[in-house]
Amino acid sequence: LSASELARGIRSRDNRLVGRAITLVERGGPEAARLIAEIFSETGRARLIGVTGSPGAGKSTFVGRLALEYRRLGKRVGVIAIDPSSPYSGGAILGDRIRMSELYTDPDVFIRSMATRGALGGLSPSTIDAADILDAAGYDPIMIETVGVGQDEVDVVRAADSIGVIVVPGLGDEIQAIKAGILEIADVFVVNKADRDGADRTVAELSMNLDFAPSAGPWRPPIVKTVATRGEGIAAAREAFDRHREHLDDTGAGRQRRLDRARARLRALLQARFFGAIEADADSAEGLDEAVGRVAERRLDPYGAAEALFSRFEAR
Amino acid sequence: LSASELARGIRSRDNRLVGRAITLVERGGPEAARLIAEIFSETGRARLIGVTGSPGAGKSTFVGRLALEYRRLGKRVGVIAIDPSSPYSGGAILGDRIRMSELYTDPDVFIRSMATRGALGGLSPSTIDAADILDAAGYDPIMIETVGVGQDEVDVVRAADSIGVIVVPGLGDEIQAIKAGILEIADVFVVNKADRDGADRTVAELSMNLDFAPSAGPWRPPIVKTVATRGEGIAAAREAFDRHREHLDDTGAGRQRRLDRARARLRALLQARFFGAIEADADSAEGLDEAVGRVAERRLDPYGAAEALFSRFEAR
To answer: Can you tell me the ipTM of this complex?
Structure first.
């Protein structure tokens, strides 16, 4: 199917064609670029909610419950689950997905797992392309759920308008990991499995950390307790996300997020274009492969090699 | 101090100047490039051991004990600890470091924490530059220890010759996270805190995962049990790393690692050079900033914008 045919399918909210369009952007290439170019002016309406947190925090269950909550309010909901490409995790993720079977049979919910290229996640431009496709197909909100809490996950959820960070009670080491970078990006904290011992302490610890956060802005992330498996606290979490959306709309923060997202997206595309050009020439006598070999053998220093390659690229 | 003076200091194993040289490469710039160019032909002797694992797995303690073990064998040992730049984690890391005080007073051990630029770690070229400096100063092995298990940590430890992945017993969710990408990169598995319940089960689970690994090559990662706080199992871990080094030397695997490392390094430098050129022109009428604004407002599609920026860059 051509980009135009897929674009028409997206506009007419044909979920089968929405799925095929996402498959196209996952593969990439010029036809994918044409598709995004064609639908791009019809995007920008949906809110992107990024959800991250540690493995085992119950992210998938939370996202499923939040999707049900938005359905209850008559919203059409998109879910993009960023799965690591490793085949090992297939089972675990499938297990979580099965719990969301109620959603799978709902035509106004579109759930898609996307494999990522790196070993452990990673911002592939196709994730944002997929969000654009769901946006153009009238899904709003669109939730992006990541596995793990690495830098790439941070990059993925940074592309969102509102970022939820899911934590669980009683994991001291966990909190330590969360402190290392995740704390700063949360718009809403969700303490899930809040029926466990230590939930209130975790809330208190997060709150104290917020008190001392150097980057404290006008928005103080609310901390919501949930038991996602039983649906408890989900309405409060949804309200917290909605309040954050109002904050984005009322202040310049929403516009800044859109600018940041556009910048990250352009940089990723420019980078792909640049390395495409470098790789096209890689096996020539003065190309990347030769330089890699000489650097590996310590016959050429990497800074000098990079400079020579860049000059050569400029002089094409 | 100039690059030449620092290079002389590195050659004469003056630890104060080694430290200043690392500070220089952390800052970056042309003088840092000159320094690496000057010492590069004297590098490539040291073995790099990357150590990663979940927060709380005891990585720092393990690395400290392994350093002591190599000292016992008369080796001069370098340690580069990749710390997230977040100020929140400072305390936790310092706590681990204090346990390594025996190492801090040893002139034949060089320990350096390096902040990374991203929110949660990240391969900054300066990490590999620092390893080159320690290499030229005669440290061997050089251990690179990361915080967390995200994509960037994977990138950092991938730069190593031998990769140790530290896990702890009884964390089902943990194993799940480990499966997602980390399993494939381990050359040696260390089950630390092996006096805890479930250590043997964790060993069995890892072993079973290895049995089913699709990427199984000629090297099967050994699984070593340690109690790093008491120094138990450290000699066995060291032997496992040494056996891996022999494997690298005896097969083509070592050369392939050096090529991969050189390629990743060149790509990082080329990327920095490319974006430097793009950013230098960012605020012109047709530059990146204008494109970002138009993409954010959905007036220009990102693929078209990237193509136009790239053409403009080529036509400079």
So the answer is: 0.86
pLDDT tens digit sequence for A182-209 = 677 889 999 999 999 989 988 998 898 8
Radius of gyration of chain A from Cα atoms?
A: 21
Residue A80 DSSP class: E
Q: How far is A72 from chain B (nearest CA, A)?
A: 30
**Whether B176 contacts chain A with CB within 8 A:** yes
Q: Which of B44, B38, B124 is nearest to B84 (CA)?
A: B124
Q: And the tokens for B216?
A: 């199984």
* Residue for token pair 């290499």: B135
Name the residue among A88, A174, A275 with its Cβ closest to that of B183: A88
Higher pLDDT, A316 or B14: B14
d(C-alpha A199, C-alpha A58), whole Å = 15
pLDDT value at position B282? 84
Asked whether A156 and A123 are in contact (CB, 8 A), the reply is: yes
Specify whether the CB–CB gap between B169 and B202 falls below 8 A.
yes
**Average of per-residue pLDDT across A104-120:** 74
Sheet holding A223-225, edge to edge: A109-115, A77-83, A142-146, A48-53, A162-167, A188-191, A223-225
* Separation CA A22–CA A32 (nearest Å): 9
Phi and psi, residue A190, nearest 5°? -120, 115
* SS3 call for A9: helix
AA letter at B68: L
B310 touches chain A (CB under 8 A): yes
